[in-house]
User: Which sequence fits this backbone?
């Protein structure tokens, strides 16, 4: 089994902290294959996440992959947010729940891989229709020609 790592940069981080994560990723390139934008989707909404841009662009320059969590909450699904995150040239988007039709079209055009979590989106009530919803957004994306989808599930373990 070959294990590779993606290091996370939290939306709440400042640029200095984010650059530190990128430097760590560069120092361990090979075992570390990329960096990810994660964290509270309500932190730095409406494109304010641009404060972290230089860290992600440095990761790309160093040959690392970029993945971003996008549109997990309504506050992080704006066109400004999408434009900013797509300027980082990510290869994968996580969640993509709260985007509008214009953003969906841009994602489809770029043929990005979408990581859709079947369980956590429901368990955390992240979906537009709440926890009672039978229509997970996977239903939409599986019908989009050229979509590349990575399905994830999580399990709660009690100890």
Assistant:
């Amino acid at each position: 089994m070959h294990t590779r790592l993606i290091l996370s940069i939290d939306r709440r981080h400042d640029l200095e902290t984010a650059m530190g994560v990128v430097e760590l990723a560069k120092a361990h390139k090979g075992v570390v294959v990329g960096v990810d934008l994660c964290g509270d989707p309500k932190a730095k909404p409406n494109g304010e996440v641009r404060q972290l841009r230089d860290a992600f662009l440095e990761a790309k320059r160093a040959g690392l992959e970029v993945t971003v969590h996008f549109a997990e909450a309504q506050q992080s699904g704006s066109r400004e947010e999408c434009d900013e995150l797509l300027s980082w040239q990510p290869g994968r988007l996580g969640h993509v729940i709260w985007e509008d039709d214009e953003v969906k079209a841009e994602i489809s055009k770029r043929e990005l891989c979408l990581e859709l979590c079947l369980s956590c989106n429901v368990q955390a009530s992240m979906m537009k229709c709440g926890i009672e919803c039978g229509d997970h957004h996977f239903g939409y994306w599986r019908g989009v020609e050229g979509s590349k989808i990575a399905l994830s599930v999580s399990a709660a373990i009690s100890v």
